[in-house]
Specification:
The chain has about 375 residues and is an all-alpha fold. The chain has 17 helices and no strands. α1 packs parallel to α3, α11 packs parallel to α13 and α13 crosses α14. The chain starts with a helix and ends with a helix.
Protein backbone atom coordinates (compact mmCIF):
# COMPACT_ATOMS: atom_id res chain seq x y z
CA UNK A 1 0.00 0.00 0.00
CA UNK A 2 2.83 2.40 0.87
CA UNK A 3 4.59 1.60 -2.41
CA UNK A 4 1.39 2.29 -4.34
CA UNK A 5 0.86 5.58 -2.49
CA UNK A 6 4.41 6.71 -3.29
CA UNK A 7 4.01 5.87 -6.97
CA UNK A 8 0.66 7.66 -7.07
CA UNK A 9 2.18 10.82 -5.57
CA UNK A 10 5.02 10.76 -8.08
CA UNK A 11 2.61 10.25 -10.97
CA UNK A 12 0.29 13.02 -9.74
CA UNK A 13 3.25 15.41 -9.37
CA UNK A 14 4.46 14.61 -12.90
CA UNK A 15 0.96 15.29 -14.28
CA UNK A 16 0.78 18.64 -12.49
CA UNK A 17 4.27 19.64 -13.63
CA UNK A 18 3.51 18.61 -17.21
CA UNK A 19 0.42 20.80 -17.18
CA UNK A 20 2.39 23.76 -15.82
CA UNK A 21 5.25 23.57 -18.34
CA UNK A 22 2.74 23.77 -21.18
CA UNK A 23 0.30 26.26 -19.63
CA UNK A 24 3.03 28.85 -18.96
CA UNK A 25 4.16 29.22 -22.60
CA UNK A 26 0.53 28.95 -23.75
CA UNK A 27 -0.51 31.90 -21.56
CA UNK A 28 2.57 33.86 -22.59
CA UNK A 29 2.24 33.30 -26.33
CA UNK A 30 -1.53 32.84 -26.63
CA UNK A 31 -0.92 30.05 -29.12
CA UNK A 32 -3.76 27.61 -29.82
CA UNK A 33 -1.32 24.73 -30.38
CA UNK A 34 0.20 25.26 -26.94
CA UNK A 35 -3.26 25.27 -25.36
CA UNK A 36 -3.94 21.98 -27.15
CA UNK A 37 -0.70 20.51 -25.81
CA UNK A 38 -1.46 21.77 -22.29
CA UNK A 39 -4.64 19.68 -22.34
CA UNK A 40 -3.58 16.73 -24.49
CA UNK A 41 -0.21 15.84 -22.93
CA UNK A 42 -1.44 15.45 -19.30
CA UNK A 43 -4.53 13.58 -20.53
CA UNK A 44 -2.38 11.19 -22.57
CA UNK A 45 -0.08 10.67 -19.59
CA UNK A 46 -3.10 9.92 -17.40
CA UNK A 47 -4.48 7.46 -19.96
CA UNK A 48 -1.22 5.55 -20.41
CA UNK A 49 -0.24 5.68 -16.73
CA UNK A 50 -3.54 4.37 -15.40
CA UNK A 51 -5.87 2.64 -17.87
CA UNK A 52 -3.31 1.10 -20.21
CA UNK A 53 -0.90 0.23 -17.38
CA UNK A 54 -3.67 -1.66 -15.58
CA UNK A 55 -5.08 -3.20 -18.75
CA UNK A 56 -1.74 -4.65 -19.86
CA UNK A 57 -0.29 -5.24 -16.34
CA UNK A 58 2.65 -2.89 -16.83
CA UNK A 59 4.94 -1.41 -14.21
CA UNK A 60 3.52 1.91 -13.00
CA UNK A 61 6.81 3.35 -11.76
CA UNK A 62 8.66 2.76 -15.02
CA UNK A 63 5.79 4.14 -17.09
CA UNK A 64 5.57 7.25 -14.89
CA UNK A 65 9.27 7.99 -15.34
CA UNK A 66 9.17 7.36 -19.09
CA UNK A 67 6.04 9.47 -19.52
CA UNK A 68 7.57 12.47 -17.79
CA UNK A 69 10.83 12.21 -19.75
CA UNK A 70 8.86 12.03 -23.00
CA UNK A 71 6.72 15.00 -21.95
CA UNK A 72 9.88 16.97 -21.14
CA UNK A 73 11.02 16.41 -24.72
CA UNK A 74 7.76 17.90 -25.99
CA UNK A 75 8.07 20.81 -23.57
CA UNK A 76 11.61 21.52 -24.79
CA UNK A 77 10.18 22.45 -28.19
CA UNK A 78 7.15 24.35 -26.86
CA UNK A 79 8.97 27.67 -26.37
CA UNK A 80 10.81 27.51 -29.68
CA UNK A 81 8.30 26.04 -32.14
CA UNK A 82 4.78 24.96 -31.07
CA UNK A 83 4.23 23.10 -34.35
CA UNK A 84 7.40 21.07 -33.80
CA UNK A 85 6.24 20.41 -30.24
CA UNK A 86 2.95 19.04 -31.59
CA UNK A 87 4.85 16.81 -34.02
CA UNK A 88 7.02 15.60 -31.15
CA UNK A 89 3.89 14.80 -29.12
CA UNK A 90 2.61 12.66 -31.99
CA UNK A 91 5.99 10.88 -32.17
CA UNK A 92 5.80 10.19 -28.45
CA UNK A 93 2.28 8.80 -28.91
CA UNK A 94 3.56 6.40 -31.56
CA UNK A 95 6.44 5.48 -29.29
CA UNK A 96 4.09 4.73 -26.39
CA UNK A 97 2.21 2.35 -28.68
CA UNK A 98 5.55 0.60 -29.29
CA UNK A 99 6.07 0.48 -25.50
CA UNK A 100 2.75 -1.33 -25.13
CA UNK A 101 3.77 -3.79 -27.86
CA UNK A 102 7.04 -4.50 -26.07
CA UNK A 103 5.30 -4.95 -22.72
CA UNK A 104 2.80 -7.43 -24.17
CA UNK A 105 5.29 -9.23 -26.42
CA UNK A 106 7.82 -10.06 -23.72
CA UNK A 107 5.20 -11.85 -21.62
CA UNK A 108 4.72 -14.42 -24.38
CA UNK A 109 8.30 -14.73 -25.68
CA UNK A 110 10.31 -17.77 -24.62
CA UNK A 111 14.11 -18.17 -24.81
CA UNK A 112 13.86 -20.65 -27.67
CA UNK A 113 16.22 -21.11 -30.59
CA UNK A 114 13.53 -19.72 -32.89
CA UNK A 115 13.23 -16.55 -30.82
CA UNK A 116 16.99 -15.98 -30.73
CA UNK A 117 17.43 -16.74 -34.44
CA UNK A 118 14.62 -14.44 -35.59
CA UNK A 119 15.57 -11.52 -33.34
CA UNK A 120 19.29 -11.82 -34.15
CA UNK A 121 18.55 -11.89 -37.88
CA UNK A 122 16.22 -8.89 -37.60
CA UNK A 123 18.69 -6.88 -35.53
CA UNK A 124 21.62 -7.55 -37.86
CA UNK A 125 19.43 -6.89 -40.90
CA UNK A 126 18.50 -3.46 -39.53
CA UNK A 127 22.17 -2.64 -38.94
CA UNK A 128 23.07 -3.83 -42.44
CA UNK A 129 20.18 -1.95 -44.09
CA UNK A 130 22.45 0.94 -45.07
CA UNK A 131 24.82 -1.46 -46.78
CA UNK A 132 21.93 -3.07 -48.65
CA UNK A 133 20.25 0.23 -49.53
CA UNK A 134 22.76 3.14 -49.58
CA UNK A 135 19.93 5.66 -50.02
CA UNK A 136 18.55 4.83 -46.56
CA UNK A 137 19.21 7.66 -44.11
CA UNK A 138 17.20 6.58 -41.04
CA UNK A 139 19.27 5.92 -37.87
CA UNK A 140 18.37 2.32 -37.09
CA UNK A 141 20.93 1.46 -34.41
CA UNK A 142 18.51 2.19 -31.55
CA UNK A 143 15.87 0.03 -33.24
CA UNK A 144 18.27 -2.88 -33.86
CA UNK A 145 19.80 -3.07 -30.38
CA UNK A 146 16.62 -4.25 -28.57
CA UNK A 147 16.32 -7.19 -30.98
CA UNK A 148 20.00 -8.06 -30.55
CA UNK A 149 19.53 -7.85 -26.79
CA UNK A 150 16.60 -10.29 -26.92
CA UNK A 151 18.70 -12.70 -29.00
CA UNK A 152 21.65 -12.34 -26.61
CA UNK A 153 19.48 -13.01 -23.53
CA UNK A 154 17.73 -15.99 -25.15
CA UNK A 155 21.01 -17.59 -26.25
CA UNK A 156 22.74 -16.94 -22.94
CA UNK A 157 19.91 -18.49 -20.93
CA UNK A 158 19.58 -21.62 -23.08
CA UNK A 159 22.65 -22.23 -25.26
CA UNK A 160 25.32 -20.68 -23.05
CA UNK A 161 27.71 -17.71 -23.23
CA UNK A 162 29.60 -18.58 -26.43
CA UNK A 163 26.66 -18.29 -28.91
CA UNK A 164 25.39 -15.23 -27.03
CA UNK A 165 28.77 -13.49 -27.22
CA UNK A 166 28.98 -14.38 -30.91
CA UNK A 167 25.76 -12.44 -31.51
CA UNK A 168 27.09 -9.60 -29.36
CA UNK A 169 30.33 -9.38 -31.34
CA UNK A 170 28.44 -9.58 -34.64
CA UNK A 171 26.30 -6.62 -33.57
CA UNK A 172 29.42 -4.75 -32.46
CA UNK A 173 31.08 -5.33 -35.83
CA UNK A 174 28.05 -4.07 -37.76
CA UNK A 175 27.80 -0.99 -35.52
CA UNK A 176 31.43 -0.15 -36.18
CA UNK A 177 31.09 -0.74 -39.91
CA UNK A 178 28.12 1.61 -40.00
CA UNK A 179 30.05 4.26 -38.06
CA UNK A 180 27.94 4.14 -34.87
CA UNK A 181 30.99 4.54 -32.64
CA UNK A 182 29.17 5.68 -29.50
CA UNK A 183 26.48 3.01 -29.83
CA UNK A 184 29.19 0.40 -30.42
CA UNK A 185 30.98 1.37 -27.21
CA UNK A 186 27.71 1.28 -25.23
CA UNK A 187 26.77 -2.09 -26.72
CA UNK A 188 30.22 -3.56 -25.99
CA UNK A 189 30.12 -2.44 -22.35
CA UNK A 190 26.58 -3.81 -21.97
CA UNK A 191 27.53 -7.21 -23.42
CA UNK A 192 30.60 -7.50 -21.20
CA UNK A 193 28.71 -6.50 -18.05
CA UNK A 194 25.93 -8.96 -18.81
CA UNK A 195 28.46 -11.74 -19.44
CA UNK A 196 30.13 -10.92 -16.11
CA UNK A 197 26.81 -10.85 -14.23
CA UNK A 198 25.33 -13.96 -15.83
CA UNK A 199 28.45 -16.15 -15.93
CA UNK A 200 31.49 -14.57 -14.32
CA UNK A 201 34.01 -17.25 -15.33
CA UNK A 202 37.43 -15.95 -16.33
CA UNK A 203 37.61 -18.46 -19.15
CA UNK A 204 34.66 -16.60 -20.71
CA UNK A 205 35.39 -13.04 -19.62
CA UNK A 206 39.06 -12.80 -20.56
CA UNK A 207 38.60 -13.84 -24.22
CA UNK A 208 35.53 -11.58 -24.46
CA UNK A 209 37.51 -8.64 -23.10
CA UNK A 210 40.39 -9.38 -25.46
CA UNK A 211 38.15 -9.61 -28.54
CA UNK A 212 36.22 -6.46 -27.61
CA UNK A 213 39.41 -4.54 -26.91
CA UNK A 214 40.93 -5.63 -30.20
CA UNK A 215 37.84 -4.62 -32.18
CA UNK A 216 37.66 -1.21 -30.50
CA UNK A 217 41.40 -0.62 -30.80
CA UNK A 218 41.46 -1.36 -34.51
CA UNK A 219 38.39 0.80 -35.10
CA UNK A 220 39.60 3.83 -33.15
CA UNK A 221 43.01 3.48 -34.76
CA UNK A 222 41.47 3.64 -38.21
CA UNK A 223 39.04 6.40 -37.15
CA UNK A 224 40.70 8.69 -34.57
CA UNK A 225 38.55 10.33 -31.91
CA UNK A 226 39.42 13.74 -33.29
CA UNK A 227 37.42 12.96 -36.42
CA UNK A 228 34.17 13.00 -34.43
CA UNK A 229 33.10 16.63 -34.14
CA UNK A 230 32.21 17.83 -30.66
CA UNK A 231 29.67 20.61 -30.41
CA UNK A 232 29.34 21.09 -26.67
CA UNK A 233 29.70 24.88 -27.07
CA UNK A 234 26.07 24.89 -28.20
CA UNK A 235 24.91 23.99 -24.71
CA UNK A 236 26.92 26.85 -23.21
CA UNK A 237 25.32 29.22 -25.71
CA UNK A 238 21.83 28.04 -24.76
CA UNK A 239 22.53 28.20 -21.01
CA UNK A 240 23.80 31.76 -21.36
CA UNK A 241 20.51 32.72 -23.02
CA UNK A 242 19.10 33.38 -19.56
CA UNK A 243 16.27 32.25 -17.30
CA UNK A 244 12.96 30.65 -18.12
CA UNK A 245 10.86 32.73 -20.47
CA UNK A 246 13.70 34.27 -22.45
CA UNK A 247 13.19 33.94 -26.17
CA UNK A 248 15.35 31.10 -27.49
CA UNK A 249 18.12 31.73 -29.98
CA UNK A 250 16.82 30.79 -33.45
CA UNK A 251 20.28 30.26 -34.86
CA UNK A 252 21.21 28.02 -31.95
CA UNK A 253 18.15 25.85 -32.47
CA UNK A 254 18.79 25.68 -36.19
CA UNK A 255 22.35 24.55 -35.58
CA UNK A 256 21.33 21.54 -33.53
CA UNK A 257 21.55 18.59 -35.91
CA UNK A 258 21.92 15.70 -33.49
CA UNK A 259 18.24 15.25 -32.66
CA UNK A 260 18.93 15.83 -28.96
CA UNK A 261 16.34 17.89 -27.10
CA UNK A 262 18.35 18.26 -23.88
CA UNK A 263 20.10 21.51 -24.98
CA UNK A 264 16.70 22.93 -25.93
CA UNK A 265 15.29 21.92 -22.55
CA UNK A 266 18.23 23.64 -20.87
CA UNK A 267 17.86 26.81 -22.91
CA UNK A 268 14.11 27.06 -22.32
CA UNK A 269 13.79 26.05 -18.66
CA UNK A 270 17.28 26.50 -17.25
CA UNK A 271 20.11 24.17 -16.34
CA UNK A 272 18.68 23.27 -12.91
CA UNK A 273 15.37 22.03 -14.35
CA UNK A 274 17.14 20.09 -17.10
CA UNK A 275 19.57 18.55 -14.59
CA UNK A 276 16.73 17.42 -12.32
CA UNK A 277 15.04 15.85 -15.35
CA UNK A 278 18.26 14.02 -16.24
CA UNK A 279 18.50 12.74 -12.65
CA UNK A 280 15.32 10.72 -13.26
CA UNK A 281 17.47 8.19 -15.08
CA UNK A 282 18.87 7.17 -11.69
CA UNK A 283 15.55 5.81 -10.31
CA UNK A 284 14.81 4.35 -13.74
CA UNK A 285 18.11 2.43 -13.58
CA UNK A 286 17.44 1.31 -10.02
CA UNK A 287 13.97 0.16 -10.99
CA UNK A 288 15.35 -1.84 -13.91
CA UNK A 289 17.90 -3.46 -11.60
CA UNK A 290 15.16 -4.40 -9.14
CA UNK A 291 13.08 -5.90 -11.95
CA UNK A 292 16.07 -7.98 -13.07
CA UNK A 293 16.72 -9.18 -9.51
CA UNK A 294 13.12 -10.32 -9.06
CA UNK A 295 12.80 -12.11 -12.41
CA UNK A 296 12.03 -15.83 -12.18
CA UNK A 297 13.46 -16.75 -15.58
CA UNK A 298 17.13 -16.23 -16.37
CA UNK A 299 16.03 -14.96 -19.77
CA UNK A 300 13.94 -12.20 -18.20
CA UNK A 301 16.70 -11.32 -15.72
CA UNK A 302 19.37 -10.89 -18.40
CA UNK A 303 16.96 -9.04 -20.70
CA UNK A 304 15.75 -6.56 -18.09
CA UNK A 305 19.29 -5.89 -16.86
CA UNK A 306 20.44 -5.38 -20.46
CA UNK A 307 17.60 -2.96 -21.20
CA UNK A 308 18.40 -1.01 -18.05
CA UNK A 309 22.11 -0.90 -18.95
CA UNK A 310 21.50 0.29 -22.50
CA UNK A 311 19.29 3.16 -21.29
CA UNK A 312 21.47 4.19 -18.35
CA UNK A 313 24.78 3.96 -20.23
CA UNK A 314 23.35 5.99 -23.08
CA UNK A 315 22.11 8.63 -20.63
CA UNK A 316 25.52 8.79 -18.93
CA UNK A 317 27.42 8.95 -22.21
CA UNK A 318 25.09 11.63 -23.53
CA UNK A 319 25.62 13.84 -20.48
CA UNK A 320 29.38 13.38 -20.70
CA UNK A 321 29.28 14.25 -24.41
CA UNK A 322 27.13 17.34 -23.82
CA UNK A 323 29.64 18.76 -21.36
CA UNK A 324 32.60 17.92 -23.58
CA UNK A 325 34.03 14.86 -21.80
CA UNK A 326 33.35 12.51 -24.74
CA UNK A 327 34.12 13.35 -28.37
CA UNK A 328 30.71 12.41 -29.75
CA UNK A 329 27.96 14.78 -30.87
CA UNK A 330 25.47 12.16 -32.09
CA UNK A 331 24.30 11.09 -28.64
CA UNK A 332 21.06 12.14 -26.99
CA UNK A 333 19.41 11.41 -23.69
CA UNK A 334 16.94 8.52 -23.99
CA UNK A 335 13.38 9.70 -24.73
CA UNK A 336 14.66 13.27 -25.31
CA UNK A 337 15.06 13.11 -29.08
CA UNK A 338 13.06 14.12 -32.13
CA UNK A 339 14.15 11.00 -34.04
CA UNK A 340 11.19 8.64 -34.33
CA UNK A 341 13.28 5.44 -34.83
CA UNK A 342 15.45 6.25 -31.80
CA UNK A 343 12.42 7.12 -29.70
CA UNK A 344 10.63 3.90 -30.66
CA UNK A 345 13.71 1.79 -29.92
CA UNK A 346 14.16 3.33 -26.47
CA UNK A 347 10.47 3.06 -25.60
CA UNK A 348 10.52 -0.57 -26.75
CA UNK A 349 13.29 -1.20 -24.19
CA UNK A 350 11.16 0.51 -21.55
CA UNK A 351 8.24 -1.69 -22.61
CA UNK A 352 10.36 -4.80 -22.05
CA UNK A 353 11.10 -3.58 -18.52
CA UNK A 354 7.42 -2.86 -17.88
CA UNK A 355 6.32 -6.27 -19.18
CA UNK A 356 8.89 -8.21 -17.14
CA UNK A 357 7.94 -6.24 -14.02
CA UNK A 358 4.28 -7.10 -14.64
CA UNK A 359 5.25 -10.77 -15.05
CA UNK A 360 7.14 -10.62 -11.73
CA UNK A 361 4.10 -9.15 -9.97
CA UNK A 362 1.88 -11.88 -11.43
CA UNK A 363 4.31 -14.56 -10.20
CA UNK A 364 4.34 -13.07 -6.70
CA UNK A 365 0.54 -12.93 -6.65
CA UNK A 366 0.37 -16.57 -7.73
CA UNK A 367 2.82 -17.55 -4.98
CA UNK A 368 0.71 -15.74 -2.40
CA UNK A 369 -2.41 -17.52 -3.66
CA UNK A 370 -0.73 -20.93 -3.50
CA UNK A 371 0.53 -20.17 0.01
CA UNK A 372 -3.00 -19.35 1.13
CA UNK A 373 -4.32 -22.59 -0.39
CA UNK A 374 -1.57 -24.58 1.33
CA UNK A 375 -2.83 -23.41 4.70
Amino acid sequence: MKKSAGRFRFFAASLLLAALVFVVPALREGNATLYLLAAAVPCAMLLFGTAFARMFSLDRMTISLVLWLSAAGVAALAWADPDSALAQALRCGAGMAVLLVGGVLIRSLSPSLLTSSCTAFLGLLLLAAKLISPALTLPLAEVALPFLLIAFAALFSRQGPVPALAVGFAGLAFLLIRGYMAEAAIWAITVLLLAFAADGRLVVLLPALAITGAILYVTFTLFPLSSFRQDSEMLNTLVSAGAVGVDPLPEAFAALKTGSLFPLLTGSFGLIFASLTALLFLPLTLRGTAVAACARLRFHGILSMGASLLLSLRALASLLAVFGFLPFDSLHLPFLTDSLPALCGELFLAGLLCGIAGRNDADLAEDAHLAMLAR
